[in-house]
Every structure is written in structure tokens, then in C-alpha cells.
Amino acid sequence: MTLMRMKMEEIIPPQQAKNQFQNSPYYTQQREPVTLDIFDFDSTLFLSPLLSCNLWHSSFIDFITTENLLGPGWWRDIRSLQVDALDSQWKGFWNEDIVSQVKQSMLDPTHMTVLLTGRRYHPFHQLIESVLAAKGLRFDVVGLRPDPAQVFEQNQFMFNFEPNVFATTMEFKTCFLVQMLQNVPTLKNIVMWDDRTAHIGAFRNYLKMMVCQKIIETGNIISVPAAKPKYNPVWELETVQKMISRHNDAVTELKNKGKLLQENVFIEANGKVMSSNNMFGLKKVPAIPILELDDELSKRLKSMFEPDYIQDLSTMTHSEWELDYAEVPEYFGTSVLLVEPVSHHNEFTILARSKATLEDGMVLQVQLSQDKLILPLWYRPSSFNHLSRKTYTWIPVPEINSLRGNFGYHELITIETL
């Protein structure tokens, strides 16, 4: 259970957290702000890269996000933020709506503008400072989770078994809030921006309790739709392969010295128990039964339905940055999603199309034997696991008969031991 501390005597701030405040731009100022504006980083302000569920098996995503199993783990590995955007101020990786809110807060002397993230101080502090500076965002304080308090530089891509100061990101963030109220006693109000549903609910209750105990006068949290960057499967695969290669090199080096990792982390994946002392590779596994279309039919469907897709989207209003930089539906149009494998029926009829939206893309309703199924044309890669469970508004189309596909499986990438 996450500790939700509210008073300074309940916490012992780690030295690194104290240093972040004392080294901040605000520390030397003579302002007395009354409102604390706190912005989350990943998927709130910044379009942090994520792994796409149309490429990666859920077991692998669980695997790579487990700390100290494959190197430090995705959220502690600096390569998860190393995108090729240094020469363009990370153009295409910003939620411009939130950037505007940050800049508005920065201009108001009665507001204290803070970036608060669960990203670790090591190894992210220099990279995040560069990212913010490139956008011209000068926060009064940047708070990164100080777990661990120090790390050896030569170990930055490997494992980290220094004890954590905080059990969870939520515990760190609530302790940070208490410390800020202690350090800046003029603060009376707190406004937070966050994208994570679980955090939003927890912080909403936490701020209510703070108001009830008269620690602050008002507390509000603004729910931000999670913002993801453009689909970039090449970057995803290259980054994961680098992480695996570095992990394997580290394990090999230790074994050559007759050593094992200080602490062995285990996880069950694909019916096998794997540990951080293993060496790993990638493999594809069959995941979802499909009726696969050939390239000619896929291109034909795109040509037929793209005018409707464009027309539907033209009637909707969207932020320019969303269309240019954020994740949007991509055209796939390669397969009918089946409920179960089929052996004899491979001929289907198109009955209807969905109304296209930037959120859900466009899918076709098809009939295969007695079953009504979907053939996704455009969709967001991050929504792949939910395509069959979505509710669509169907628009009938003239029936297109005698279309064929070949039975197969949509394959996803997962981990294997070597």
C-alpha cells in the first residue's frame, strides 16, 4: 500500500531531493508564490516513446518494464528517452497544450512552476535538463525521483541494486509535495496535471485530505489525455535490441569473472521462469488468429475507403500538434481478426465501415460464414489490444463479395532465453 504522507515530521527527505530544491532556479529568488503548479513529464508534457502492443507481446512488455531484470528496466534505462531529436528541439515530442499551460504558469509571479516525475535522478537528470532547455521551459524546480541516491557511472546501462528511498513513485511525489509546502510556506493552493488514471484518482483524494486538514486551501488535479508520439517501429526494435545486447554483454562479463549478479530478479514469462542472470534473445510467437489478405487486396481496400476516411476526419476539430506529431491511426488493412481459428472458410463479404475518428481510425465489418468480424484498416498501434472490444458506429456500404484471405496468426515479439 502506498504511503500518503502529509506532514514534514512523517518524512525524512533524502539528500538528493534536498539538493534538487537548493540547486533550483527558485531557491535564489525573492518571490512568495501562493499556487503550486505541478506538471507530470511522461505522456503529460512530453510524448515519451512507448512499446507498441501491435508489435510486442504483453509478456515482453511486463518483462522489460520489470526493474533489474533486463538491465535496469525500461523506465530506468536512459535509452528509453534517447530519440533522434537533438537537432530539432525534440520537435514532435511535446503536448503543446500543456506547454502553453507551463508557459502561462511561468509568467505568473504568484505561481510556482514545477516538473515532477518518477524518472530517476540517475541517469535522467542531464538529459531531461537538455530536453526542457531546448523547448525554453525554465521550471522553478525540477523534481526527479532520487532512487538511488548515487550510482556508479560505469554501471549506468546495467543493473542497480542500491536500496530505493521510496517504495513507489506515488510515495515519492506525495513526500515531494510535503517538502515543497515546508520549504515555501506561502503556498496555499496546489494544481496538478497528470495522465495516469490511477495517479489522478489517488492525488484527487490526497489533495482533498490536505484541504480538510487545512494544510492547503485548494487542491485540484487536471486529467490530461495520455499523449503518445508517432508510431516508430524501427526505433522500438533497435532500442530493445541495444538493451538486450548490453544486458547479454554484462552477464557474459560477470560469468567470465566467475561471478553472478548481486541480486537475482525472477519473472515468469511464456510458461518459463527467467532471471536476470539469463542471456536473452527475441522471437515471434503466434498471438491472434487472423485471415491474412494479400498485398494487392490490402492496397485495393485502402484506395476504396481512403476518401471516406479523409472526409470523416475533415469534419472534426483537432489540435495541429496532434495531427503533426502525436500518435494517429496508421494504415494496416492486412487481416480480418478472428475469434477462433478457421480451417475451411476463407471467403468473406464486406458489409459496412465504421465512422472514422482520430481516436479509433476506421474498421470494416465483414461476414465470414455466420460470423460478423472486423477488418481494421486504420488504427492507432497503441489500441491494438482493444480493437475487437470497441463499439463502432457502422455505416452500410454496397456489399463487396468473394474476397479471400489465408488463415494464419498475427505474430508478436517476445523474449526467449539463450
From TrEMBL:
Report the superkingdom from the record.
Eukaryota
What is the name of this protein? Swiss Army Knife RNA repair protein HAD domain-containing protein
> What InterPro entries does the database record attribute to this sequence?
SAK_HAD
The record places domain Swiss Army Knife RNA repair protein HAD at: 48-248
Q: Species name for this entry? A: Helicostylum pulchrum
